[in-house]
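Whether sequence alone determines local backbone shape is best considered at the level of individual chains. Part of our work consisted of pairing the sequence of a single chain with a tokenised description of its backbone. This step matters because it turns folding into a mapping between discrete strings. For completeness, the protein is quoted in full, as a sequence line and a line of structure tokens:

_____
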Amino acid sequence: MIINTTGFPIEIQTAHSQYPEDLLRRTETYFIENNGATQYLIPAQPNHIFEGSIHNKSINRSKVNVKILYKGIPLVPNTTINLDKSRVLAYSLHQPDSRSPENQVLCSIVQEVQCKKIITLTSQIHITNKLKEICEVILEDGSERLVKDLVEDETMAIPINFIPTGNFLIKYKNSNYSTNKISLNSFLKDNNSSSLACQINSSCYLVIACQKPQPDIPFFNVSISPPIEIKNCCLVDIQYQLFEAENSGFSGLIKAQEAWKDVKVNPDSNFWIQIKLEGFNWSEKIRVPLEKNEEDLLQEIYLKNGMSSLKVLMMTSKGNNRMSRKILIYTEAYVINETPFELEYKQTNEKLKEEKIQEIQDFSGFCGVPIKTNSPQGIPCNDIQNMILRRKNDNSRSRLFIANIPGSQSVELINKETLSELGVNTGFAECDKEHGITAKIITISPRYIFVNNTPFDIEIGEQSGFVSMTIKSKRRAPLEHINCLNPKNKK
């Protein structure tokens, strides 16, 4: 597929190679409007299948001639467009009867998606809106003017005619405030990644950053971003308070796996942050480092809950001062309770071999955090190596078991009168793909579940004549071993 985002219509013709069979082929012409696309099939010959030179012949067939219908004056690249490899290439444009290059440059972006090549013929500069709000991108060049609304994460290609001498400015939709004019050619002259902090008014700031993906190719990605973005990489909601120069600033709630973006933050100020998770107290104020850093910076935040403490990690992305900074907040592990009763846990990072794990009889000083019944999000916790479980209502407890190895295992909760079998599964969840952040997920569920799909209530028991539980019609319930003084005698 070939996509046109140059700002003008284009014509595409198949390019012939030096091979005789190709010289006899009919030239095919495709016409693509701006922001349009067409399917393009690379021709092949069956008799090439077993020839050693098939690769070279396929490459020669992966080229096309392009003509841009630029204001009634056709412009063509200095050579044919290569569609063979996944990469970005730049071509100088000129009029067909003149070899002197114009100021415009055509870029081709070749990508492979599910065994299909997507070729985008475009300009040198793309602009992406990283704000939550809609913003207007206004392009001006003399009497020419183009206005484009961009929603969050939407990208537009600057038409090639604006790039040599044009300017652009940014403003919010339905707002009278905007940035100063910025020269598009200034990005090309800089020839490197750079950023610019713009103040729209007394309480609105934007960061316009330019990145060059390939050092040797004059192609640039320009992003419009807030000064600071806070992403909640936790699997639970967090509350935050952001302080500017130690004065009260912004506060709110960030849903799990969502981000807070705001343009009211001055990128030249110092910031402190406080966070709170359900069941824990507010953390202390932590300074957000905005100085130049070549690597991502990691800080530890501790939340208190009685005698226990939860470690929360805060990562500040690498970058320079006056750049848009991304702050990621996450925890190391979660415990999910899928049983119908409340559990407590006690964790330890003591290194024990599986064959030497013994039951712990002394529960003095137990300060586990209650696991709510059927809490699908679970509760955040510190990284768990080994743990013990206790059921809250009858004080039945498990042995110390390893919870650090991915996989499933059976765990028994035992007291003098009851025994319950639980299944414990340890896995990992991806919290942020870009930065490779994962969390350990420990899921606790009933080992056996009795499902009653009959129209009758069913009474079940583990010993003859003894009813341990009743399961209603069309209901399900975990199976427990009641009155088993010796767990080995389960029936």
